Amino acid sequence: MLARADTDALPVTEATGLPYASAVDGIMHACGHDLHVAALLGAAKLMSDERGAWTGTYLALFQPGEEIGAGSQAMLDDGLVAKVPRPDVAFAQHVMPIPAGIVATAAGPVFSAADSLKITVYGKGVPEVGLEPHSNPRKHREVQKIYRVRAKPAAVRPSPKPKVCM
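^ thats the sequence. predicted structure below, dont judge the formating
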């Protein structure tokens, strides 16, 4: 059995002031990856502690680069397939806003996507009066609107609805 967690941080400046905030400027765990890692470490410890209660092989796989869509390929390029046994089943987890104590499952890919986009905005840039295209909030919203309209896929396949188990 293989259990996988994504480990990468996001290029976001953390301004929470919390004692456990990121110590690296411009980088933070902003979408649950720290929870993913903690959950997989906890599961691995439980599996190790209860080794006599089950048979087989348990693989805890920590994947970097999930947010940029390159981590799994980098792991394959690094020889992952030759380094670990082929699992009979693979599980990945993701946090979602459901009540504590509930597990939701679905067959097939769920919560999976990787997108990259490069936009060049042309216009005046006068830092002294706040006309920087990259930092003007109104311009930023306009660029987001352009992206949403132009990048909308022609056909949208809905994700499978998770089954809720209690």
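The mean pLDDT is 75.
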